[in-house]
Amino acid sequence: MKINFEELFEEKILKRGYSYYLEDSVHDVTKNGNCYEGLVYGTEIYEVQVEINENGNVENMDCDCPYAEENNCKHMAALLYYIENDGEIENKKIIRNIDNFDKILDRISENEIKEFVLEKLYENSEFQNEFRSKFVQYFEKTPKRVYERRISQSVYQAIGRKGFIEYNETDRFSDPMYDYIQEARNLIRHKEYQAPFWIASLILEELPDLPIDDSDGTTTYVEDECIEVIEEILEKCKSENIINEIFDWIIKTIKNDTLGDYSDGIEKILDEYFTEDKFINERLKIIDTKIQELNKEKDRYSEYELENLIKTKIALLYQLGKDKEALGTIKDNIYFIPIRRMLIDKERENGNIDQVEKLLKEE
After folding, report:
1. What's the total number of domains in the chain?
2. In which band, very low, low, confident or very high, does the pLDDT at 89 lie, cut at 50, 70 and 90?
């Protein structure tokens, strides 16, 4: 079934959807009239629906992933590729096929193909990365310093002589990054977890200082993919050493503000995956240090950040069962209206109506 859908997606999203399709991430596809529904497996399982009319035009799409609230997402693209190819694995390589490559390959000798691939590998670093990401299980384990060099070199090449990546050239950066991310996913599939973490964390560390016109949201897409890789590792990995390595890296980046505006994703990882007391206590140490530093500053941004840190501290103290310490922190910071309202709620729960009225008058 031919579907007119590729122009509905940004190229980088289309590529990720195609990768999901090739990775057999689309399951349980059903059809009801012109409506198709399916499940797409990523770090979570997403429900996707598309409606296609008789002319192959997409009339409606929906997915329950956060990105799809305002955009057409990779999970939609994956389902559409699946539908277009009838979900048959053997047809997955024949999208946009002009020549019958299967028959042509049958006529080419193994040595000719090998020589062609080797020639491309020697002359094209992008093809090297793509080849490695596809067949990573056949390579020896790569040390972290090699990933550092490879990723740094790819970023350097993307920036080029101008020292800047224009809005219409962002694929020069995102394409090799997606190859590395694909390599990480392939490693995870083969139960390798440390190298995928290195890949994701090294890419994330490149984002804050990247000289790029990010009008199309390229760095956000790359960030989301890296966060998904780290989440997948934490869901599947049983090695305490690797889990601790991830936690230590996250704490270090927060403490040193390494990721700048790209730190929200990893802070959410802390909330979801590092809920044991030993991790929470380490977080509280970092939060207390940051609170002390921000108390020395006098600007609106520091006040805003300070309020958020105090709210996080209160939540973590309650999580540890340190209710008295949490309440003391609330009382010490009631000049922040949201924190004052926490105290009002507590006093109301305890039936202290006079105290509630007093606090309300002081707002």
Report:
1. 3
2. very low
**Predicted local distance difference test score (pLDDT) of residue 363:** 67
- Domain ranges, residue 202: 108-254
Sequence-distant contacts of 281-286: CB under 8 A, at least 24 apart: 281/320, 282/247, 282/251, 283/251, 283/316, 284/313, 284/316, 284/317, 286/251, 286/254, 286/255
The gap between the terminal CA atoms of the chain, to the nearest Å, is: 63
Same domain as 47, residue 14: yes
Query: Does pLDDT of 86 surpass 80?
Result: no
Q: Taking residues 119-124, report their average pLDDT.
A: 88
- 268-272-277-280 Cα dihedral, nearest 10 degrees: 0
232 and 291 part of one domain: no
* Helix segments in the chain, DSSP class H: 11-22, 74-84, 101-107, 110-123, 125-134, 144-159, 171-189, 194-206, 218-236, 240-256, 264-273, 277-295, 300-319, 323-332, 337-349, 353-361
CA 360 to chain centre: 42
Sign (positive/negative) of CA torsion 211, 266, 289, 255?
Answer: negative
Q: Which of 51, 79, 98 is the last residue of a domain?
A: 98
Give yes or no: residues 176 and 234 share one domain: yes
Parallel/antiparallel/unpaired status of strands 58-63 and 45-52: antiparallel
Tokens of 154: 């790819």
Higher-scoring residue by pLDDT: 61, 359 = 61
This model's pTM is above 0.85: no
Same-domain status, 217 and 159: yes
- Higher local confidence (pLDDT), 164 or 137: 164
Is residue 263 included in any domain, yes or no? no
Whether residues 114 and 210 fall in one domain: yes
Which single residue is written with the structure tokens 């006093």? 347
Task: Please state the rounded mean pLDDT for residues 2-8.
Answer: 90
* pLDDT higher than threshold 80 for residue 91: no
